[in-house]
Amino acid sequence: MKVRAQIVKLALIAPLAFGMVGGMVISANAQDSTPGATPATDMGICSEALQIGMAGDSCINVVHASPDAPAVDVYLDGTKALSDLAFGSFSGWVAVPSGKHQVQVAAAGSDVSTAVIDAEVELSPDAAYEVAAVGNLAEIMPAVFQVDLSDVGTATDAMSRVRVLHTSPDAPAVDIAVKGGDVLISGLAFPDASDFLEVPAGAYDLEVRPAGTMDVALDLPGVALEAGMVYDVFAIGQLADGTLTVLVVPSTTTVSEMATPVA
Questions:
Q1: Deepest in the core among 26, 156, 203, 219, taking most CB within 10 A?
Q2: Is residue 6 part of a domain?
């Protein structure tokens, strides 16, 4: 598949669709879905990298990765911020003030009073987060992944940054490998994310295998990674019904304008 190297910049205040049920607090200071204390500055300043908002803001991209959940509307601090986000789509990067926010999620077209998720979330200044709804509807849960938007490569050394996020609820742990060749990421289980890999910009033929085997669960031919870009590759859908596929979510770093994109 061809990775599109463009940022979707919706004029929406649409963060954190999926927090915790019952008004619990999520501290979004994590590089992965486990709360932690990773300093945002170690991963770049999102307003500069994405060219949205202002210094000190947080940046959010909402990903709907729950395969049997309906499209949803998202409310931020009591105001509808995003309408009709469907499975297999993402909101696009938006900037919001850092700090605490109330987030509510309801089925598309329904009243906020019917929200099935009502959460208070706390966002660190300058940090960028992918916030995904994962699992089937009966066990839907949030996964918060900080995105590393620090510089990658240079004007003369064209590099990309990529990681894989396992959000297919019925798929076993997987390996990500070069087609017919070496394993790049091993034993990635639901609902975890791999570490980021920095690789030369270019096109790659990859495949997803059940961990420890040479069987191919999903072919990924012609994955094009552009210089100065960051890619989150979500494995979404379900193995049982043949809907397993990938959703590629691109971001940019501050070096991207200096590097020469791959054709």
A1: 26
A2: no
